[in-house]
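Why should sequence recovery work at all? Because a backbone constrains its sequence more than one might expect. Tight turns favour small or flexible residues, buried strands favour hydrophobic ones, and helices have their own preferences. The token representation captures these environments compactly. In the example below, the structure is given first.
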């Protein structure tokens, strides 16, 4: 029974098989060693935590050109998966808290309601209660900035709530 592979390993192996299929046909028989998989984890200052998937195999074409010489392809494919918390963007949000609110771990900005320019959520009305003092703000210019990544959640805690929970644009 074949061991179940994670999607990254399956994709890497499919890539290796396609590569082998694209190699020039030799004059002799071929052989392929069983694939070897490895998976590791790491962390670096430049990229942060990462997960690395590798697969390797040997593909041999016997008597590849009819001169008794074998062509041997040592094939290794490595994919590194890392998470990007969009560090610069969230540091900027931390530095500028003007008209910024956090509701249920999602960051928004309250735009100015005057003028004829673009409006967040097409000008839909939102009633927002500030948790610190209970003040209610009515706006028709709310701008969505996304869920706050885990590493910034303590720095950007909830500071508001929708007066009417049905107004929440994205239920999680």
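From this structural description, the recovered sequence reads:
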């Amino acid at each position: 029974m074949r061991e179940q592979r994670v999607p990254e390993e399956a994709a890497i192996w499919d890539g290796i098989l396609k590569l082998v299929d694209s190699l020039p046909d030799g004059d002799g028989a071929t052989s392929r060693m069983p694939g070897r998989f490895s998976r590791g984890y790491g962390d670096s200052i430049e990229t942060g935590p990462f997960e690395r998937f590798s697969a390797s195999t040997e593909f041999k074409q016997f008597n590849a050109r009819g001169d008794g010489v074998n062509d041997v392809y040592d094939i290794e494919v490595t994919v590194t998966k890392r998470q990007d918390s969009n560090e610069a963007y969230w540091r900027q949000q931390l530095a500028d808290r003007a008209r910024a609110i956090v509701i249920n771990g999602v960051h928004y900005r309250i735009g100015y309601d005057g003028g004829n320019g673009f409006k967040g959520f097409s000008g839909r009305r939102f009633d927002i209660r500030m948790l610190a003092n209970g003040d209610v703000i009515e706006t028709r210019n709310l701008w969505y900035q996304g869920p706050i990544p885990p590493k910034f959640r303590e720095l950007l805690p909830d500071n508001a709530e929708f007066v009417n929970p049905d107004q929440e644009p994205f239920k999680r």
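A few observations help interpret the result. The helical segments are 7-22, 87-95.
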